[in-house]
Amino acid sequence: MPSPSNHSTAAPTRSRITRRSVLAGAALIAPLVLSACGGAQPGGATASGDGLSAWTLTGAQQSVFEDSFAAWSEAHPEQAISAEYFANDAYKEKIRTAVGSGNAPTLIFNWTGGTLADYVANEQVVDLTGRVNELGERVIPSIMQAGEVDGKQYAVPNNSTQPVILYFNEKLFEQVGAEPPTTWEETLDVVEKFKAEGITPFAVAGQSQWPYLMWIQYLTDRIGGPEVFQAIQDNEPDAWSHPAVTEALTKIQELVDAGAFGESYGSVVADNNADVALLHTDQAAMLLQGSWVYASFKTDAPEWFAEGNLGYTEFPGIEGGAGDPANVVGNPANFWSVSAAASEDQQQAAVDYLNEVNLDEGAVDALLDAGLVPSTTGAEEKIAAHEESDYLSFAYGMVQDAPNFQLSWDQALAPAQAQELLTKLAQIFQGTITPEEFVDAMNATIK
Q: Quick one: signal sequence residues (predicted)?
């Protein structure tokens, strides 16, 4: 995930707030397999010692990876890819341990940012500069650049671009006679309307903590612009003291006090799509989440989805804020790095896989069929012809038109800083610390 200097700079050409309803009768995705599919051995070797290994995530994109690995393995049986799939939170802990101990899989799934910088500093991943040109020709340049550290390529995109979107329940909005909010004042108004009807205004998976980030990221950007987090990422002294951060935290606690998230949001887990379920079971009206959950609505609630109950729009603007309302936060994509602990033959085979199969035409088709927006160039024609072109065009347009695409903060920062951020942000949502205490704690992490 890139620094702001690497984000798309295309001028916004669409309406700042776009409302769409998902087309009824869309094709469904086959249920995803959640169990592991093979065992990775130290150094990225498989059981035979000749093949490759890969670790990645369960969820909406698992089937896309499975197809990609199968295509490579069929063409290269002597270098077949053995894959394991993990829930998001469990994976992040496991991969850090594996990389640190020299037992990483050949292909390391990551989000770039501070973690990738650590891998590079410790010489744990391979320099791919000049070795993945074929792949580079089919990837959006700004997203490809997100895998660079100090001007060298250490990671490459492997899936969809993932803006954070405000999803909403069309049926519930019609029930209370409301429209999706476009301003902060409208946001507070719809919170009161849904509360009065006994409906949770916003679902959020508090137990997982990382979904909280989407709130502080959008609010800080809308209030102060992307320069605020850039100063934090650059470790400028007292960067967290910017008034936009304090105002964003204050607005979060304003929402909590207004009952915007209900009463049990701290026990909701993202890995099992519990936040998504609150929307499609008509218990919650809105959900701020990444574009990756769109496929979960299709698979988890096919009838509700097919009835056209899912809507989507951009995060509301803040009156008087310095940030462009077209700015986006999220993950430009996820990425593959190649383990330096793998043998030279395995490293070369991994590079060949990246050039030949990763994000090829088959992968692009699979991503679109899953309701995911590929991180490749020239996708407009395929999107326009797709039965879900309305949603796909919306999400693709968010990325293409965004003056700034801000990297997820827990990935942009060094791991120790990111963990402190998640801990303190959870306390903000719990109301156990003040914005000022949050700022002091985070300034103390700056080195």
A: 1-35
Q: Phi and psi of 176, rounded to 5°?
A: -95, 0
Asked whether residue 247 is domain-assigned, the answer is: yes
Q: Are 211 and 276 in contact (CB under 8 A)?
A: no
Q: What is the pLDDT of residues 234-279, one digit of tens each?
A: 999 999 999 999 999 999 999 999 999 999 999 999 988 999 999 9
The full 3-state SS of 209-268, as one line of letters, equals CHHHHHHHHHHHHHHHCCHHHHHHHCCCCCHHHCHHHHHHHHHHHHHHHCCCCCCCHHHC
Same domain (yes/no): 175, 242? yes
Are 223 and 77 found together in one domain?
no
CB 66 within 8 A of CB 366: no
User: Residue 107 corresponds to which tokens in the numbers above?
Assistant: 């292909």
Whether 418 maps to a domain, the answer reads: yes
Instruction: Let me know whether 314 and 436 are in one domain.
Output: yes
Decide: residue 261, CB within 10 A, 0-12 exposed, 13-18 middle, 19+ buried: buried
> How many distinct structural domains can be found in the chain?
2
Give me the CATH number covering residue 144: 3.40.190.10
**Residues 203 and 312 placed together within one structural domain of the fold:** yes
239 in any annotated domain: yes
Domain-located, residue 392:
no
Give the whole-angstrom CA distance, residue 187 versus residue 351.
Answer: 47
d(CA 103, CA 340): 10
Q: Which residue has the tokens 């519990």?
A: 274
Q: Which two tokens stand for residue 25?
A: 């009768």
12-52: per-residue pLDDT in tens?
A: 322 323 333 333 333 322 322 222 333 333 344 333 467 99
Q: Is residue 86 located within the same domain as residue 52?
A: yes
Give bridge partners of residue 37 from the DSSP assignment: 83
DSSP state letters, 169-198 = EHHHHHHHT----SBHHHHHHHHHHHHHTT
100 and 173 inside one domain: no
φ/ψ region of 129 (left if φ > 0, alpha if ψ in -120 to 50, else beta) reads beta
Kindly list the distances between the CA atom of residue 368 and the CA atoms of 5, 103, 293, in Å, as whole numbers in the listed order. 28, 34, 14
Q: Give residue 414's Cα distance to chain centre.
A: 17
Task: Look at the chain and count its residues.
Answer: 447
Provide the residue range defining the domain that includes 54: 30-159+333-386
Residue 68, token pair as written in the block: 């990609």
Say which residue the tokens 């990876």 belong to: 65
